[in-house]
Each structure stands twice: as structure tokens, then as C-alpha cells.
Amino acid sequence: MTSSAPPEPEPLVLDPRGADPHAEHRALHARGPATRVDVLGVPAWSVSDPALLKTLLTSPDVSKDGRAHWPAFAETVRSWPLALWVAVRNMFTSYGADHRRLRRIIAPAFSARRVAALRPVVERITGGLLDELAALPPGAPVDLREKLAYPLPVAVIGHLMGVPEERYAHFRAVVDGVFDTTLGREEAMANTGALYVVLDELIATRRAEPGDDLTSLLLATPDEEGAGPALSREELRDTLLLVISAGYETTVNVIDQAVYALLSVDGQLELVRSGRVGWADVVEETLRHEGAVKHLPLRYAVRDIPLPDGRTIARGEAILASYAAANRHPGWHDDADVFDAGRLSKEHLAFGHGVHFCVGAPLARLEVEVCLRLLFARFPRLALDLPAGGLPPFPSLISNGHRSLPVWLHGAGPG
């Protein structure tokens, strides 16, 4: 008699609300390096083993171009609430030579020189927001996510992109909708439409009044032959969308999670204040322990990919990078579920890996480091106002933050 392979378990249905992400991570780990999941009705392979994930993220057998390598693309984007994540035309969804072309155009905006030049801008914006916090009347907790973690990256990315300051709030509203995976298809489509209206307004403004900003830079960049613009209209809109969404919502979450960890895990803030670890250590451990993104849709198998356990990701099947679960994999880090800014190895995949590694990672690290340093210097008695049951998560299977981050600025309680 011949032995047969064990039956494939039913796909794990990922929670669109992200109500208990750590339980979801453990469930993924228990199913092996890769397992079938249901992502709002779309089947995919979730990869939560860091070694396998690194291999796939650097393999030419894995693509991010759904139009070219996902047979279900056309049918899926008509009804899937996360269609925007796979249907945009920018370096996030490109493959091979097309990806290299698009990344080469955007990369100069995030050079070491340009990011270093943004440090005084980040410090000025942070200082102004802390002044506003200090001016609030005492006697009530403050939502630090709303008052600091949100407005800082919105203002920084707005400055970088050339967004008029009076449009910051509107930009934030539509980008929030991109990460809200509880929206139905119609709501998601309406939000996408509103987002593109805002992007078109930005393009029109910067075309009429060019400045020293990324939007103006992209508008002025010629193609390699110098015969026309480097980006098509669709590529330009979607590249701006990528920079705004990746450079804003993710940084909000890292600030949120870093402050939460420092105020809730015994001894961590003292490690920094004693000089045993630096703020950069806190940033890296936050990225490992509670990265900004839980799952990132989607990639696709260009050809059949054998897995370590003998199964196969078939050509054309979708792959979900489950970054947060990989960062907490027990085979990668000792006590992986414990936040420890003093741990020697803080390796993580929070910014991805391989050719799609986040081009804005240096700016995100700068923003979080500056924010934490200035916040705890200004409010050394900062304390959480932790409700019973903890802080509810932001409703998303992608975004990894809290709904709010209530704190007392001058010590626990109104006194």
C-alpha cells in the first residue's frame, strides 16, 4: 500500500478586525512554515516562518505583479475590499525590470542626504506638537495616538510630498480607509475614489507651483530617453499613493507601539534612562515585537514552489507575507513574545526583505527615534491610562496599532 499525504487543513480565516493578532500568530506558527489562509474571501498561502519568508522574498519565482502572475486577478479586483492593494501601478506591485525602473525613480528622494536634511524638520514638528500637548488643561488623560503619533508623520510626509498644510486632515482620513479592512467593497471603492481626487488635486497644485518636494521631483523627472515624463499618469498617482500610505500609517503604529511598550513593560524605560540602551534600540525592538504591518497583500508564485514539508505553492497562487508572525517566530528569537530593548539581536522583517525592502525605512526610523527622545524628555512622568482589558487594537488585519493611546502627561491620575 502507498501512504498518502495528510489531509490539508481548512484555510485559517484571518480576522479582518485584527482583534487578537497574537493568537493569530500562534495559530499560523502551529500550522508550519506556510499554510493556507482566507484573506477576506481570497485564498492565499500565509508564510510566517522567517527563513522561508526571506527565501521567497528574494526569489525570482515570486512576483508582486498580479496582472501578470495571478490568474484570479481580474475577477478578484472587481469585488475584493482590498483590491487597491493589488491593483495599483507602482513599485509596490511591480516585478523584475519594471520594479527596478520605478524604484530607481523614487529612491533619490530617500537618499541618506535627503533623510538627514529632514531631521531638523522632524524635530521642529515634534516640538510644536509637544508644545500643544503641554498647553492642554490638566486633569484628564490625553490620546497620544491622536495628538502625536498621527499628526507627526502626516506633517512630515506632507512636507516631503508638498501637500498644502490645510489638506493634511483630509489626506489622513482617506489613507486611514486604505488600512481599514472592515470596510465593505462599496465603502472601500468610495474611499479609493476620494483618495484619487485628493492625489489629483496635489498633482495639479505642484504642476502649477513646483517646489522642492517629491511630487514636483516626480513631475519633472524625464524618462531615460528624455522624450517625456518618467511616469505615466497612473504610475504617478499610484506612486504618490504608495509614499503617502507607507510613510504615514506605518509610522503612526510604530510610535504608538513603542510608547505603549515603554510604559507597560517593567524596566524598559529605565534601560534607556540609564544609558544601557539607546532610542534606536527601542525603535528596532518595537519593529520586531510589534511591527507596523501584520500581513501584507499579496505576492504570487511565478512557477511551482516546493515547500520544506513536501507541499507545493502552485504557479499562480497568492502568497501573503505575515511579517508580524515571522518576527515573533519562536525559532528566530528567544522569548520572542517579550519586549526587550536590550536583547542583542533585534533582527526583523518589519520593512520587508529583498528588492522590495521599504525605501522609506531610514525616514521612519528617524521619525520614531526623534519622537520618543523628545516626548520622554518633555514629559518624564508620562504614564498609561490603561483600561481594564487593555487597549483595543485598530480594526485591521494589515495595520498593527491601537484605536487610541490614552496617557497621563504628568504622572498616573489627575493629580
Short description:
By secondary structure, the chain is an alpha+beta fold. The chain has helices at residues 21-30, 50-57, 66-69, 73-77, 83-87, 97-106, 112-117, 119-134, 144-149, 151-161, 168-179, 185-208, 214-220, 233-264, 268-273, 279-289, 323-327, 361-378, and strands spanning 12-13, 34-39, 42-47, 62-63, 142-143, 296-301, 305-306, 312-313, 318-321, 383-384, 406-408. Helix 14 (233-264) runs parallel beside helix 18 (361-378) and helix 16 (279-289) crosses helix 18.
Structural summary, described in words:
The radius of gyration is 22 Å and the shape is globular. The strands form 3 sheets. Strands 1-2-3-9-6-4 form a 6-stranded mixed beta sheet. A 3-stranded antiparallel beta sheet has the order 5-11-10. The chain is 47% helix and 9% strand. Mean pLDDT is 92; it is low at 1-5. It has 415 residues and is α+β, with helices and mostly antiparallel strands. It has 18 helices and 11 strands.
What's the helical proportion of residues? 40-55%
| Major sheet: arrangement of strands | 1-2-3-9-6-4
Rounded to the nearest angstrom, the distance between the terminal CA atoms is 76 Å
Beta fraction: 5-15%
Supply the helix-strand structural class: alpha+beta
Count of strand segments:
11
Low-confidence stretches: 1-5
Query: Mean of the pLDDT scores?
Result: 92
By DSSP (H or I, 4+ residues per run), the number of helices equals: 18
| Main beta sheet | 6 strands, mixed
What spatial form do the alpha-carbon principal axes imply?
A: globular
* Gyration radius from CA atoms, angstroms: 22 Å
